[in-house]
Amino acid sequence: MSEAPVTLITGGGSGIGAATARQLLERGHRVAVTGRSEDRLSRFAEELGKPDTLLAITGDAADHEAVQSAVDATVDRFGRLDAVVANAGFATHDTLADGDPEAWREMVLTNVLGPALLIRAALPALKETRGRIVLVGSVAGFVHTPGNIYGVTKWAVTGLAENTRRMVTGDGVGVTLVAPGRVETPFWDGLGSLPEGHLLTADQIADSIVWAMSRPEGVDVNNVIIRPIGQPV
Fold it and tell me: CA–CA separation, 219 vs 91, rounded Å?
């Protein structure tokens, strides 16, 4: 059985998740990606030539059974699990004053409950490999934006990262929070246009995720905040 590292990425069919999957596959890793859209995952796999080292799993990152099933399927397919990347998430681009509370519910479940469920499901396998948990947060989890519920969810992810690190560091499991600033991804689709100014690319964020995952044994990179030059806050 191959000893190549195995990573599970939620929201892995597009954006930062897909870019991270590509870079890991290019390094010889084995990768499982999850997402809600079977079509999007199928297109992603086809773009890559449907390699045996890629497993695409349809499922909701905020559903406990779906997340546990994805972890189990990854371990069954590849025999181990070395890292998870909690990347699935979205924004409603509204405020406390005028937003849609029902949309907030789905966002909070995906952005906050989702990473917690992934940690819960993956931890036994990660303890065996002394692996790594990567949480994709946001600069919005460090800098307040007036009335922004998305930012609240990312503050929760910032707290979850340190909370988790303190729980698992004695088990040899590392935890990294990667907090991007403005990135050109489908995140902005709900606004109709991209924000002004320079934006990072999904590949640039993936570079940092892969870099954190590839540190020498015993090194735990905990917080990586990445802004494009020109983003003031």
Answer: 32
